[in-house]
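Anyone? Bumping this.
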Amino acid sequence: MRSDELTAPDSAPVYAPANDHEPIPVEAEPREECGVFGVFAPGEDVAKLTYYGLYALQHRGQEAAGIAVSDGAQIVVFKDLGLVSQVFDEQSLSSLHGHIAIGHTRYSTTGSTTWENAQPTFGSTSVGTGIALGHNGNLVNTAELAARLASRASAGTQPAATTDSDIVTRLLAATATDTGPAEAAMTLLPDLAGAFCLVFCDENTLYAARDRNGVRPLVLGRLERGWVVASETAALDIVGASFVREVEPGELLAIDEDGLRSSHFAPANPKGCLFEYVYLARPDTHIAGRSVYATRVEIGRRLAAVDRVEADMVIPTPDSGTPAAIGYAAASGIPYGQGLVKNAYVGRTFIQPSQTIRQLGIRLKLNPLRDVIRGKRLVVVDDSIVRGNTQRALVRMLREAGAVEVHVRIASPPLRWPCFYGIDFPSRAELIANAGAGEEDIESVRRAIGADTLAHVSLADLVAASEQPRTRLCTACFTGDYPIPIPEQVGKHVLEGIARSVEPPADQAVTGTPASPSSSGRGQTVGASYGAADSLRRP
Ligand code: SF4
């Protein structure tokens, strides 16, 4: 289904060239929705394993982080806004004892950035057991699920969280009272529409589930004394787990002291996210058996054949453009060089820059190596163009550093459509690829960013570089062909309106009140005892 069948196309944006002194705002990069991690490993420090697993997945979400641990008798959840390294320290990790853990790093695609919306979420059954859950992806029938939850809920307080993940947790907990979590999941999961990789646990069992389309990656790994599930293979490597296989689309895994069991809640219809190969996943991850790094190098090789240009040096926009630039240089014979140095940590801080600092724009993130750039005809390879602000600022900065020509090459086709499956692209009107019309698109974008030439890799070449059949991929942000139908009411804040009419049982409300892990009762959500209240006031 194309989204223009649902809504009228947005009007094209207007891009005015900047004068020489105007600071150009640096746009946010496309943001992944979340990373998930789970471990079942008696005798291991599962909280610390999960901490390092989340560290490896930090690029998938930088707004909040959390870990839930079960010792067989109770589940303790510790979560807060911030990076993994900001949320956890030795003291907090040492308070999380058990043999099962799940972890989550969050960037919001449904619901606001609040402590309540951090994950893992928690739900209690009416018999006093608990379910903690982490979700990567985005559901497209959240309103329907919220209505279903409302019809089950007795009078009580309003839900504190406003995420699709929280609704799923509460529905699972409500059903698990009668049937247990495994059966509850087999009943509920076929009714979830959209993209989801779930890790969840009760007091005794770790579960992992992946939507029938397998939009987001989820893999299974083996430890000497246990099992790991993670969003990316790189997280397995970092905790010393060996890769076993991908969790299959439509599969539910249950792992406990009796071992691993697999069930299928829906027939598989793979539609893996093509943009994971371009930008989202780590280069040291493998997806569907294909190295993300090798894919990006191959994209660059193919890109070198598009609109060939005479140049002195190929430079990447670090870091996501680096493998494609290496491939471009190898195929074109133009020497590869580093023309830009990235300040890797800026943008991942809660400290708001002053106006003086903000004026620096892209220089906060990238600094040119003037001695390398001066007098050169450059090919600059980047992974994608969203609004175009970054490339516009980049081209200007390279010219100011002495480049005599700047040829921009993009390792993906033009981004023209929003993603409803968990990536936070702007609206159609804000995507610069929609600025022109038809064949003039590329030329109008070239003018807007001030490059001498501009070229993208084709969709066919991108798909070929991934070594996946196109029929097994989602390409919607490039083509508008959405493999999972999109209801009209879908939107990031859909639940904040719905929440007013949903009244869950009082005992399921997550209040965010700080509490000591040691004071937790069986199956209770334990608020972060170190800074949870403070986190609500952070920018
Ligand atoms: S729309 Fe784009 S970013 Fe979203 S799942 Fe599909 S390919 Fe990935």
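Late reply, but here is one note on the structure posted above: The mean pLDDT is 83.
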